[in-house]
Amino acid sequence: MTSTLRLQHCAACGKIQYPPREVCGNCLSEKLEWRKTNGAARVLSFTRLHASLDPCFQGRLPIDVLLVQLDAGPVCYAFAAAPLTTGDRVTIGERIDEGGKTRLWASPA
Amino acid sequence: MAAAAPKSYDGIALTLPVTIGYEKTSPHGAAYFAGQALKALIDGAGIEKADIDGLTMSSFTLTPDNVVGMTAYLGLEPRWIDDIPMGGASGLVALRRAARAVQAGDADIVACIAADTIKPGMFQDMVANFSGFSRDAVFPYGAAGPNTVFAMITRNYMETFGATREDFGRIAVSQRQNALQNPHALFKKPLTMQDYLAARPVAEPLHLFDCVMPCAGAEAFLVMTIDRAKALKLPYVIIKGAVERHNAYSQDPMPLRGGWAMERERLYGMAGLEPGDMDFLETYDDYPVISLMQMEDLGFCGKGEGPEFLRKTPLTVAGGGLPHNTGGGQLSAGQAGAAGGFIGLTEAIRQLTGVAGSQITGAKFGLVSGYGMVIYDRCLCTAAAILARGDA
């Protein structure tokens, strides 16, 4: 179940930030607000992992990970929900993993 | 943007390259390796420990200590210290800091040390919490550490410029050849292109021989005045130019270039030299693509021309092209943590003072380049220096 991407938006200058932080990486304002954000993105690169440092992942290899650039600006890593390659248009959404943590997932647009 | 040329490094000498290790696993802490390095520095220089009045430390595994704790641990009372937490750029930045301190009279003899240990589970802990951004936005995606980051960068470079795995293989294979005469290198057997290409995938397109082996050890050198080096009768090297830049080209969505490109003109300008004057090049080889990026950004070939450059330029010491990573680099020696950011320098000092394992005849000028701290999707610290034989 994938939910809408939420990112920090700077209320002062409008810059959308990722990874999360406490001051705007552009104007240094602390007025950062979490808002639902359009997850439209483009795949910049991808890898298939055959090794992991975490036993949880070791049991699920290989794992496909993408690097995407959101139309909203930031670049982010995401799991691939389907076979995807450089240049593909995707939608980035959020899923909660077994540990209760939010993770980004890329689906074909 | 034209800036005033930085002050020269006239009068400064680099001496006493020290390597401790390497070991694939160790019961010791990082401070043990730092201590071994300090002992080798003072024994090699024929000085008293108390003569060391400046200290820099670089380490990932010294935690919870840093340079401050080392003053008590090693029994020093320095009047100048600096902690250089910059990974693969640590050696070059330590050099820059120490050189300015000596020029200013804030220290007379500075020991620059990088030391790291390796124990089961330690690497995973370090990678999981390497930086806030990495902890939050990289590690959760497969826990593969820098391999994930550099797999992306490697693929992007291949797709943008048409590089093949074989192109990167030339770096790994030639470095292994150069490592065969390095007594400290962990890898002792030659590597063929076939071995390189057939190796198991780790994080595609990276395969086994694209990745360094973490290990334990230390690297160090001394910075002092030329007058002091002569008085101590130490072979020494001089600094023709040195630069650094951090978070360069931060708006590039994917890194095809690094801070060396921003600082190249300044570096060669300070030295009054060109890439063609270099007798060797020591790049930071966390992954072959980054060595290639350094070759391009430091002017040995144009951007994107790296693959062609590799195809036609021998990189071995005796190859007649551009001797590159002449001690084998990290890919063949192993990466002793932050000491990986020093091995280019210690190897360069050896080459320029005539004591390298694989010695280039008459080496006069060399370029050493660094890259460190994969905070999110690329390393942020870059640095480079042009060094020359003491009498050059």
What is the count of helical runs of chain A? Answer: 1
Could you report the average pLDDT of chain B, rounded to the nearest whole number? 97
N-to-C order of helices and strands of chain A: EEEEEHEEEE
Query: How many individual β-strands of chain B?
Result: 11
Shape of chain A: globular
**Whole-angstrom Rg of chain A:** 15 Å
| Main sheet characteristics of chain B | 9 strands, mixed
The secondary-structure element order of chain B is EHEHEHEHHHHHEEEHEHEHHHHEE
- Strand content of chain A is over 45%
List keywords for this structure.
heterodimer; A: 109 residues; mainly beta; 3-stranded antiparallel β-sheet; 1 helix; 4% helix; B: 392 residues; alpha/beta; 9-stranded mixed β-sheet; two-stranded antiparallel sheet; 11 strands
Structural description of this entry:
The complex is a heterodimer of chains A (109) and B (392). In chain A, 4% of the residues lie in helices and 49% in strands. Chain A is mainly β and 109 residues long. In chain A, a hairpin with a 4-residue loop joins β6 and β7. The longest helix of chain A is centred in the middle third of the chain and has 4 residues, at 55-58. In chain A, 34% of the residues are buried. Chain B has 392 residues and is of the alpha/beta class. Chain B is 36% helix and 20% strand. Chain B contains 14 helices and eleven strands. In chain B, the strands form two sheets. Chain B has a nine-stranded mixed β-sheet with strand order 3-2-4-7-1-8-11-10-9, sandwiched between helices. A two-stranded antiparallel sheet of chain B has the order 5-6. In chain B, α2 (67-74) links the parallel β2 (54-58) and β3 (80-83). The two termini of chain B are 30 Å apart. The chains are: A mainly beta (109), B alpha/beta (392).
